[in-house]
Amino acid sequence: MPVLKVSDVKKVYGSTQGGSVSTALNGVSFEIEQGEFVGIMGPSGAGKSTLLNVIATIDTVTAGEISIGGQDICRIKEPELSDFRRSKLGFIFQDYNLLDTLTLKENIALPLILSKKSLKEIEAAVKNVSAELGIGDILGKYPYEVSGGQRQRASAARAIVNSPELILADEPTGALDSKSSKDLLQCMQRLNEKNQATIMLVTHDAFAASFCKRIIFIKDGVLFMEIFNTGTRKEFFDKILKVLSSLGGDNSELF
Amino acid sequence: MNFFSLALNNIKKKFGTYLIYLISTTFAVTIFSIFCSIYFNPQFSSYRFGAGKITVLFSAAAIAIIGFSSIFVMYSNNIFVKTRKKEIAIYSLMGMKKSQIGRMMFYENIMMGLIATACGAILGVVFSRFFAMILLKLMADGTAVTFSIQWEAVITTVMVFLILFTISSLNAYRTIYRYKLIELLSAEKEGEKTPKYSVVGGMLSIVLIIMGYITAMVMNVNEGGIKLMIPALMILVCIILGTFLLFKNFIPMVMVALKKKQGFYYKTENIISISQIVYRIKANSRMLCMIAITCAVAVTMMSATFSMYKALESTVPYYSPFSYMCKNIDDEKLNEMLEVVKQTGEVNVTSTNQFKIIKVQLQNSTYSTETDNNPGMIVDGYIISQSTYQSIIRDTNVETGTFNNLKTDFNMDLKDGEGYFLDGNVKKDYCKNLTGSVMNLQFDNACAGFDIVGVSLHKYIGFMDSYLRPTIVINDATYSQYLEQAAPDDVVSFTGMMFDNPAGSENTVAALNRIVPENPVSNSVMGIANLSYISVYKSIFSMYGAYVFIGLFIGILFLLASGSIIYYKQIIEAHEEVNRYELLKKLGMNKAEIKRSISKQLGIVFGLSLTVGLLHSTFALLTYNRMMDLGAKEQHTMLNAGIIVGIYILIYCCFYLLSVNSYMRIAWGREK
């Protein structure tokens, strides 16, 4: 059974306000299996973020179905929705979304605290993930006291601390320098390979995407193409660039 | 860690941000509490339950203050919740239940509310003592007042704010339910849209405001009741609507026009501050309108009451020209009186004047008393000698002026057969054409005519003659002839004393009244036995002092309110703009340039609302000035308003400087 099943999802903006209607997603369908590391790419305005938002239950679909772990997420209501998010989903955002009032440790522990886990379990889990992401020695600091790369790794640690079925990453490297980006992406790759974590990564950056095993391209709200990583990362990177240029998107930003 | 401790933790960690909210709400509670303790003070209970204007005013003030407090608390709460939206979204994403988030927000807000209520109630009790003292001083009630804690006031304050904070906390509770997650998550990113203004709206705003001003300038202020209410309401609607449209349409119009003038726009600080204002103007328009109107209300209230206070003070000599006055006192008694003044030791006597006037009857074909309105009638009046009148003018420091109850223009030598007419009427209607005509004087069955060479409305004996009879000043020689013929009953002798500080002569007057007989021996038809500056002062201010106090109180309240709202709003904006200034810093703007830019930007926000507010109050005061009668007009409402406006601008500037400093501290951030 696939971890994520998206079938014929449509998202239309603007009809409720009575303004002009714009279609962000126009019938997207795909599946992600357990242990996959999938990238979602496409030119600006293709509907990448919308797709991520509806999968993340942040936004609602206009039509279609999304199921995660066999559960139809379009039908869940509060308070089951909160439980669902807590146990099944992990988020990594471009702008980290860490709480300034909490230390990195408290931020990472937050999903576990909300799940009312025992102190021992929390300590162990936080220690484990923070070591994996290389932030074990800065856990006592506040988000504004550490670098962007460290913040993003803390945010990644928070996303995986409760071993969710699906990790959603929205341009996680968008605000990072190339060194921090590479560190983070390698961490994610390791999580995927070692822990069998299922990751969906939305990005416009071909370098970031080259760490994935599979990439889904969308354009104008529909699925455009799928490619698989069969060789080295370098080869995959070249493949991605080719697709991007065929998409007609302006990829001059990549060079 | 449960969500209650999470809420507590939030308050502890983010105390800085919470502090602003806490201070502003505490401030609202304090103001309310002060007013309550005055309202419920048993000493003022007569104002609460009476039927007079003051009761209405008191209740109106109570409603105004409740209204203000609620708006203020809700406004602060809304801004406060707005800054928390993203945090809520993150909690939600982490899998916190909506009900838990809601409860966390509720706890947090209600905790802050409880702290604010407690602090405000305590501060209110402390400060109310101070304010009650001012009020009593203004009302010149003089009696010793026992200040006790008014439990009614404390309970009312606590109840009102518990309700208010419960409502606002419920509002915070509902936030998570009201917005979609995606809206909450991007609440910070979402800027205000570029201002869309309509030219029609901009023009309409100017038209409405001008219409309001014109109506104010031409309306008939002597009408009463409903006839006064209709134009007043019209003005109110025109001005409020006009001001709103002004800030919503006209100001953005001007700003966009300025933006087009590239020579002006492309200067380091201008580009930052103008783009900032244009960017924010939509959200600001409502606040700016609110500030401008509060400012107008505050300035008008304070100026009007301040000049009323001044006017009241200046009318005291109209009733009592001397510091102390009594009748039919012989030399022995006078010495006794002077001894009493000395013994009391409160004030010094600067001059004493014993004078006589003679009762006569007067007649002129055009003259009448205002009460009878029957020209040509025979009126009871007096004659006074030239030298006596001059000594009164000298002793009571009368200013020179024509047709005024407090001034005279008498400075001449009267020939035989000439007379200077002192009208007993309040208005000049019957005496303005008397100069040049003949006043017939009937005395002891003999009749004589006096050529009137001058007239005045000066009330030289004040209310010692409560019938306000006219007097003719004649030369000393003629006067002594009359005095010889006069029967003892026809002559009234007065004693007037001037003190160096009449306002502080309370005990002296009380002591004097004990030795001066209440009812004079002679069966004089004239008014009261004794009169003092302080007693008149007290009776006037016990009547009107509460008006002055309530006016000043509300004025100060509104001033502080507008200042703190604008300050609060700027601080919130500064927090939202941190990233922008971080960027500007990286682009190479130095500290001085950023400070100049911020000063300019806040200067426009503060200056605009102040200018519009002052313009409104100028017209309001011009109308108020027309409403006041002759006496008060002499008191230069506009001059008094100028003093108030000066003070107002000063306090407003303090708010401005405070805002610039705080903004700068936030925008420039920690030195790294």
UniProtKB/TrEMBL annotation, chain A:
Keyword Aminoacyl-tRNA synthetase belongs to the record: no
Any Pfam family matching the protein: ABC_tran
Species this chain originates from: Acetobacterium tundrae
Record PANTHER family: ALPHA-D-RIBOSE 1-METHYLPHOSPHONATE 5-TRIPHOSPHATE SYNTHASE SUBUNIT PHNL, LIPOPROTEIN-RELEASING SYSTEM ATP-BINDING PROTEIN LOLD
A single GO molecular function term of this UniProt record: ATP binding
Keyword field: ATP-binding, Nucleotide-binding, Transport
Source organism superkingdom: Bacteria
CDD domains reported in the protein's UniProt record: ABC_MJ0796_LolCDE_FtsE
Gene3D superfamilies: P-loop containing nucleotide triphosphate hydrolases
Span of domain ABC transporter: 4-245
UniProt KW Cell cycle keyword: no
Family: Belongs to the ABC transporter superfamily.
Protein name as catalogued: ATP-binding cassette domain-containing protein
UniProtKB/TrEMBL annotation, chain B:
Subcellular location: Cell membrane
Start and end residues of each ABC3 transporter permease C-terminal domain: 61-179, 553-667
Keywords assigned: Cell membrane, Membrane, Transmembrane, Transmembrane helix, Transport
Membrane topology of the entry: Multi-pass membrane protein
TM regions (residue ranges): 18-40, 52-75, 106-134, 154-176, 197-216, 228-251, 287-309, 544-568, 602-622, 642-664
Keyword Transmembrane set for record: yes
Keyword Transmembrane helix in record: yes
Residues of the signal peptide: none
Family: Belongs to the ABC-4 integral membrane protein family.
Designated name of the protein: FtsX-like permease family protein
Source species of the chain: Acetobacterium tundrae
